[in-house]
Amino acid sequence: MANEKEKTLKVVGMHCPSCVAAVELSITDIDGVDEAKANLDTGDVEVKYNADKVNDEDLIEAVEEAGFKVE
């Protein structure tokens, strides 16, 4: 069975639906990420992933590649 985890990231700089889409797409492009749901109002991104394939650094790097910062 996969080592499924959930994590909430606090993302700074999301100002519009396009920002949300960019963050979600960048994170879900990682092999091992099942789901990423960003909330524009709170700046939170809920991520469901396989911890055997994905670590915190992978998630943070994906957010930064989309042009945003993680608090």
What can you see in these coordinates?
The chain has 2 helices and 4 strands, in the order βαββαβ. With 71 residues, it is α+β, with helices and mostly antiparallel strands. Helix 1 crosses helix 2. The radius of gyration is 11 Å and the shape is globular. Strands 2-3-1-4 form a 4-stranded antiparallel β-sheet. The protein has one domain (4-70): 2-Layer Sandwich (Alpha-Beta Plaits).
Structural class: alpha+beta
Helices and strands, in order, run as EHEEHE
What do we call the CATH topology?
Answer: Alpha-Beta Plaits
Give the number of domains.
Answer: 1
Helix content: 25-40%
Strand residue percentage: 25-35%
What sort of overall outline do the alpha carbons produce when their principal axes are compared?
A: globular
Uncertain ranges: none
Which second-level CATH architecture applies?
2-Layer Sandwich
Strand order of the largest sheet: 2-3-1-4
Number of helices: 2
Average pLDDT across residues?
96
Radius of gyration: 11 Å
Assembly annotation: single chain
Rounded to the nearest angstrom, the distance between the terminal CA atoms is 31 Å
Q: Could you describe the largest sheet, including whether it forms a barrel?
A: 4 strands, antiparallel
Q: Quick one: CATH class?
A: Alpha Beta
Number of strands: 4
What are the defining features of this structure?
71 residues; Alpha-Beta Plaits; four-stranded antiparallel β-sheet; 2 helices; globular
